[in-house]
């Protein structure tokens, strides 16, 4: 079955760049997503990338996809304290409704 | 309007109670979802409705009963729950099945 892996924790200084990594196993993954969850809140869709793309940039966020290695990353430029949260990567197949989530990476931004 | 709303925000219920969770979206989305999220874990899919019909049930116990009265509303009826059912219940919607999902803020459920 599908498997999505993330590192558990990332600590970064305010103003630095953060890079959150994700690996997945399903070669039929077509859509890959990054969600942000703040304490006690729902999931906020940050960005997504289709598997036929290598990179997508949206303001401070840059998503890189290495389809050969099944590796996805999210770079946050100029990280702010408001970026402290849990970040989930997720994948889905073209034909299905199901999202498979990674375990989440807790990002702590220190002033 | 790009919002999914959920009520109530918090719910405490006993094991013999019957309660319902509600979810609403006005984005014209035709797929709606229920997820369960335990602390420090990713969301787990429970049910998917597509065009108001149940399309996926992830082997969820019958004490959870979903309902989709119309294309904007999704309910989750709860009956005879167990303490281990305490969790954050998240609703999501998408335009169609394969599109990006937008989540509501969740209902924090505590079963006593």
Characterise this structure.
In chain A, 0% of the residues lie in helices and 59% in strands. Chain A has strands spanning 4-6, 9-13, 18-24, 29-37, 43-50, 55-58, 61-66, 71-76, 85-93, 100-101, 105-110. In chain A, a hairpin with a 5-residue loop joins strand 4 (29-37) and strand 5. In chain B, a hairpin with a 6-residue loop joins strand 4 and strand 5. Chain B is globular, with a radius of gyration of 13 Å. The mean pLDDT of chain B is 94. The A-B interface holds A 30-31, 33, 35, 40-45, 48, 88, 92-99, 101-104 and B 4, 6, 31, 33, 40-43, 45, 48, 50, 55-56, 90, 92, 94, 97-98, 100-106, 108.
Keywords:
heterodimer, A: 111 residues, mainly beta, six-stranded mixed beta sheet, five-stranded antiparallel beta sheet, 11 strands, B: 112 residues, seven-stranded mixed beta sheet, four-stranded antiparallel beta sheet, 0% helix, 57% strand
Percent in helix of chain B: under 10%
Helix content of chain A: under 10%
Discrete helix count of chain A: 0
Strand elements of chain B, count? 11
> Kindly state the mean pLDDT of chain A as a whole number?
92
What proportion of the residues of chain B form beta strands (DSSP E)?
over 45%
Rg over C-alpha atoms of chain B, rounded to the nearest angstrom: 13 Å
Element string of chain A (H = helix, E = strand) = EEEEEEEEEEE
Which regions of chain A have little confidence, pLDDT < 50, spanning 5+ residues? Answer: none
What is the mean predicted local confidence, pLDDT of chain B?
Answer: 94
Task: Chart the SSEs and their pairings.
The complex is a heterodimer of chains A (111) and B (112).
Chain A: E1 4-6, E2 9-13, E3 18-24, E4 29-37, E5 43-50, E6 55-58, E7 61-66, E8 71-76, E9 85-93, E10 100-101, E11 105-110
Chain B: E1 4-7, E2 10-13, E3 18-25, E4 31-37, E5 44-50, E6 53-57, E7 64-70, E8 73-79, E9 87-94, E10 102-103, E11 107-111
Parallel strand pairs in B: 2-11
Antiparallel strand pairs in B: 1-3, 3-8, 4-5, 4-9, 5-6, 7-8, 9-10, 9-11
